[in-house]
Amino acid sequence: MNMLRKFFQALVDIVYPRACVVCKKQLKEAGCIDNFVCLECWEKIKRNSPPFCHRCGRHLEKPTRNICPDCVRKQLHFDRAFSPCVYEGVIKELIHAFKYQGKDYLGATLSRLMVEFIEDYNVPMVLLDLIVPIPLHKTRLREREFNQAGILSNHIAQRFNKNLMPDNLKRLRNTQTQTELERDLRLLNVKDSFTVTKSQEIKGKNILLIDDVLTTGATSSEAAYALKNAGANIVFVLILAN
């Protein structure tokens, strides 16, 4: 089904000129990103800027402390999160198209933002042994036909020559989508929903977890908890937007 969809998309691209995924204006080859996003929209993506919260990775408005007020009140099992973008406007539309409109090809374009952030802010990739995507439950994977975190992870692993481990961390339950829940219910929704199938491959390793969006941090925290229970050492999280 995925191959058939890509075939029809290719036919559409031949018949109709490329348009920006966000604003729908016709793209000019010299003024666009990967033939998917016009420069005007790309430049509207709001970036996270330092100082960063040392837990969730968001910009700190009052840099008297290195942790934001939200994170002070939470128990998060990952050691630190990094995020290039603020989840609003253009990046929100691009992520929605990527995840819910079958535009899996946007993964390469969106991963550019993560790569640039790693390079600009010296995220310590040299310390990391493995890259692990946040998994989808098999039911949701069948529905969507791809895991957006897996696509992003593949591009990051290739760019920084890191080992990718896509199948060791498993999601045990087909949990309700976090965006449908109040903030207080999100932790309960994902509690104990991850497991590691081969602990020996995780033990003592420093891991970079990758996902597309972090809001409360509940999903990434539970995934990190499962990895640390299996013997992982450091668990950092890299998300596209928060």
CATH-derived topology of the largest domain: Rossmann fold
Classify the beta-strand content into a percent band: 5-15%
- Pick out the low-confidence regions: none
**CATH architecture tag of the largest domain:** 3-Layer(aba) Sandwich
Number of domains: 2
Helix content: 25-40%
Kindly provide the radius of gyration, computed on alpha-carbon positions and rounded to a whole number of angstroms: 18 Å
User: What is the terminal separation in angstroms?
Assistant: 32 Å
Count of DSSP E strands? 9
Average pLDDT: 88
Task: Explain what this protein looks like in three dimensions.
The protein has 242 residues and is an alpha/beta fold. It has two domains: 1-44, no CATH class; 45-241, Rossmann fold. The chain is built from nine helices and nine strands. It has a five-stranded parallel beta sheet, with helices on both faces. Strands 1-2 form a two-stranded antiparallel sheet. Strand 1 (32-33) and strand 2 form a beta hairpin. The chain starts with a helix and ends with a strand. The model has no long low-confidence stretch (mean pLDDT 88).
Short recap of the structure:
By secondary structure, this protein is of the alpha/beta class. The chain contains nine helices and nine strands.
Keyphrases for this structure?
single chain; 242 residues; alpha/beta; Rossmann fold; 2 domains; five-stranded parallel β-sheet; two-stranded antiparallel ribbon; 37% helix; globular
